[in-house]
């Protein structure tokens, strides 16, 4: 599957949205003879031409290792790799590019914090607070840390007050409920009791302006592949003084200052946390993705997605026997442009399989949130997740296909 940036018309589905960003990416794909309606963006996004071009350019023109050679190619690769770090830093409002650690994905970024800061600061009896809505990526690393240290893992509803916390690890925008965590308030409350906060921004950074300084968190994590970049690249942002206090994680090349036979000294952050040859092309691709999203304007993307999300929610809610989870679009903090739902009496897998026959790609299963599904009393669900390049007309194609699917099963 391939998305091509440009100003061509959409994918064949007529567009009728007001703040339309959909021509920015054009799908040439047809599925089962129908124009593809890709609504699985919360899992991974399509890639615009600008990002594909950045990858192509790296491999064709200056493929080389970073930080290692003085020859021209290596110097250019290093420059572009570090420039990508600056682009990510600017995209999230970081004070400095030195606060951005490239990881392979968000899961790795969470594990990095759990196994460095966590291993040093979390002790038996300490509390690690997560929500019941966490993605497995922001839950399992803390379970492992709690098991190793004897810390207590607590799962609270997002609105409940807590005291004497050591660490709060919360999802910023849920990949299932679509709800948004009042992050500024949580960070303030946590600070008041001396706790550190890690925010899982995998679903917020791609879809709305995120400013790490305004949020007030200690760390955030995100994944490149959900924001137009390739797989194999994600990042950890952390306050520099905190990163500086964190011990090395994985050992190897790049992350050292000097190496002796029996011991080593370590580079300052972010290099300290980037052992081995990094995902060079992917990082450069992430830089290009930040440029691309910034050129569209994150506020514009947020507004377009608000329209898509509201339409999606309202249309789904108007269908008999459909239950949509999470807060309504009128909730104080709004709602992300995704809708997770079930149709009474029809298995989610059957729904997504029959939607696929209409060229509509949605996700079904537990979306890596098994505990949340248990909490909701659901074995599974279906999720439709548009991105900025989707149109209101595509939402309508999905809704019509869903109605057809329901009548097929009745
Ligand atoms: C909210 C949330 N957190 C974490 C992740 C994990 O990201 P990755 O698989 O890139 O590590 C995802 C996506 O899968 C997600 O939606
Ligand atoms: C995501 O990170 C994990 C942990 O470091 C790694 O094992 C996995 O290969 C990564 N995925 C990709 C696509 O790079």
Automatic annotation (TrEMBL):
InterPro entries: Aminotrans_V_dom, Cys_dSase_SufS, PyrdxlP-dep_Trfase, PyrdxlP-dep_Trfase_major, PyrdxlP-dep_Trfase_small
Essential cofactor(s): pyridoxal 5'-phosphate
One of the record's GO molecular function terms: cysteine desulfurase activity
UniProt KW keywords: Pyridoxal phosphate, Transferase
Pfam families reported in the protein's UniProt record: Aminotran_5
Keyword Transferase: yes
A biological process term (GO) from this entry: cysteine metabolic process
Record carries keyword Transferase: yes
Domain of life: Eukaryota
SUPFAM superfamilies: PLP-dependent transferases
Residue ranges annotated for the Aminotransferase class V domain, each copy included: 37-398
Record's catalysed reaction(s): (sulfur carrier)-H + L-cysteine = (sulfur carrier)-SH + L-alanine
This enzyme's EC code(s): 2.8.1.7
Protein name (record): cysteine desulfurase
Coiled-coil segments on the chain, per record: none
